[in-house]
Design goal:
The chain is of the alpha/beta class and 165 residues long. Mean pLDDT is 85; it is low at 1-28. The strands form 2 sheets. It has a 4-stranded mixed β-sheet with strand order 2-1-4-6, with no helix packed on it. It has 3 helices and 8 strands, in the order H-H-E-E-E-E-E-E-E-E-H. The protein has helices at 2-14, 22-28, 149-161, and strands spanning 43-52, 55-60, 63-66, 71-75, 84-85, 105-108, 113-118, 128-133. It is globular. Bound molecules: copper (II) ion. Copper (II) ion is lined by residues 57, 80-81, 119, 121-122, 127.
Length: 165
């Protein structure tokens, strides 16, 4: 009897029906947490590492596909790194950012487009990553700014790995 009743209540909650009495809702609230209809904004973690899958001095992952409203958190797993936006590799409606060395920084995404990120001390070693927001295409001039050769090579690799070039 009780099993049958519980199953019926679960079915009602899953289909979004409002349960009949306050007493029943209160009793079953914990078990019947209704899934939110809207997709919640996500947080994506990016580690700043001395050594990772892509070699030394790297972000991991070095490519993140995200949506407007999501947050990227750069975590200083190893010392000596930061994360900052690169001039001319930033969508118009995305504010530039620059984290301090050894400090975590959170970046909220406010515009679709591509964001190029660099570690200031290791830009010359190619420590860069890309955030793609809302599946945006690569701007024609994305790699045309002045940058170290290894950084440009790393960007080209990241785009190729993700079939964006
Ligand atoms: Cu670095």
């Amino acid at each position: 009897m009780s099993v049958t009743r519980r199953t019926a209540l679960l079915g009602a909650a899953a289909s979004g029906l409002v349960l009949g009495t306050g007493r029943v809702v209160a009793q079953t609230n914990g078990a019947l947490a209704v899934k939110p209809v809207l997709v919640a904004a996500k947080t994506h973690e990016v580690q700043m590492l001395n050594r990772g899958e892509a070699g030394t001095m790297v972000y991991e992952p070095r490519f993140v596909s995200a949506e407007v409203g999501d947050t990227i958190v750069f975590v200083p797993e190893d010392k000596g790194h930061n994360a900052e936006s690169i001039k001319d590799m930033l969508p118009e409606d995305q504010e530039d950012f620059a984290g301090k060395i050894n400090e975590e920084i959170e970046v909220q995404l406010t515009s679709e487009g591509l964001i190029g990120v660099k570690c200031k001390p290791h830009f010359g070693m190619g420590m860069v990553m890309i955030i793609q927001v809302a599946g945006a295409p690569v701007p024609d001039d994305f790699l045309e700014g002045k940058m170290p050769g290894k950084a440009k090579k790393a960007f080209e690799e990241i785009l190729a790995e993700n079939k964006l070039s």
